[in-house]
Write a structure and sequence with these properties.
24% of the residues lie in helices and 23% in strands. It is of the alpha/beta class. Helix 2 packs across helix 3. The two termini are 34 Å apart.
């Protein structure tokens, strides 16, 4: 029988009404009551938080927990709040790269205790996927979709169909019979990493903006317009940041299509710029945080940051 470790972190799936509104209350063990799937389930509860309050150090904790128990289990399911689930999946995709075992994020838009909750079906699907011997990699399983953790993006605040796979097809899905369809097979080697840097800063550009960048920033991500570019009125300031050693990354505010800095004149600069390409903003942030901890100069950083070019 397949062994699955289910890790509870809080989120809407575990919420109950408190004095000021919904707040995490149920443990992972309580959430699993009534789950009838022919697998051997074990649980861990490293923390129980609204995902708005989760920080990169919490994802480092999850990565260490999975690494410690990696040989014990056939797969891992992480119950996580939806608000930062895309950031979580992107971060674990960097901390545990090319995992030969499935590491599955899921949650719900409504608490498990709600009458019309989507929690039970998402939990069931995530466990079934984690227990399938063909499964691998960091994934988000939500509302029947199986999404590469590097490409997940939450685009809806109310509907249960709230996650999309950006610039990449779904890895698979559950049909009416519960079957799973896979679009690729595992190859390569699993690699574990320990840390995410806290020296990454994201700026969403708006017309006429004045930059205020903290002094400890080593990588600045500019969420620009369209195919990407840097406004003329900001090039002088950003050039000074680059000269001081800050790595400049350009992504786009558009959900689909990615960057192409060679298309317009505003994409050409006299200082080095790294393109995020088709990365989601969430994955660009996670990839930069990881690459900073593993590099010693700009070229190493760029090579590591752009190392997932199959997205």
């Amino acid at each position: 029988m397949r062994k699955i470790l289910v890790i509870g972190t809080g989120g809407t799936i575990s919420c109950a009404k408190g004095e000021n509104g919904l707040e995490p209350a149920l443990s992972v063990s309580e959430l699993l009551r009534g789950v009838e799937i022919p697998v051997e389930l074990h649980t861990e509860q490293p923390f129980n938080l609204d995902s708005t309050n989760i920080l990169p150090r919490h994802w480092e904790t999850l990565a260490r927990l999975i690494r410690t128990r990696y040989d014990e289990f056939d797969g891992f399911v992480i119950l996580h709040g939806t608000d930062t689930m895309a950031y979580a999946a992107a971060s674990l995709s960097c901390l545990i790269q090319n995992s030969r075992k499935p590491i599955v994020f899921t949650g719900s838009m409504k608490p498990m205790t709600a009458e019309d909750s989507d929690a039970s079906i998402n939990l069931r699907d995530a466990i079934k996927f984690a227990a399938d011997e063909r499964s691998f990699g960091v994934r988000v399983v939500f509302d029947g979709a199986i999404i590469d953790g590097r490409c997940a993006h939450k685009y809806e605040t109310e509907d249960i169909d709230s996650f999309d796979s950006v610039n990449n097809d779904d890895y698979g899905f559950f049909n009416v019979d519960g079957a799973i369809y896979f679009s690729e097979e595992y190859s390569g080697e699993t690699r574990f990493y320990e840390r995410l840097s806290d020296e990454v800063f994201l700026v969403k550009l708006i017309p006429g903006q004045v930059l205020c960048v903290p002094s400890n920033v080593r990588a600045l991500i500019l969420e620009s317009y369209g195919a990407g570019g840097i406004p003329d009125y900001l090039t002088g300031e950003i050039s000074k940041l680059a000269e001081s050693g800050v790595y400049i990354i350009v992504t786009t505010q558009c959900a689909y299509g990615g960057t192409n800095l060679g298309e317009y004149a505003v994409g050409h600069t006299n200082f080095p710029v790294t393109e995020a390409g088709k990365y989601t903003v969430e994955y660009a942030v996670a990839r930069a945080r990881w690459a900073l901890t593993e590099s010693h100069n700009y070229q190493e950083f760029t090579d590591l940051f752009r190392g997932a070019d199959n997205i």
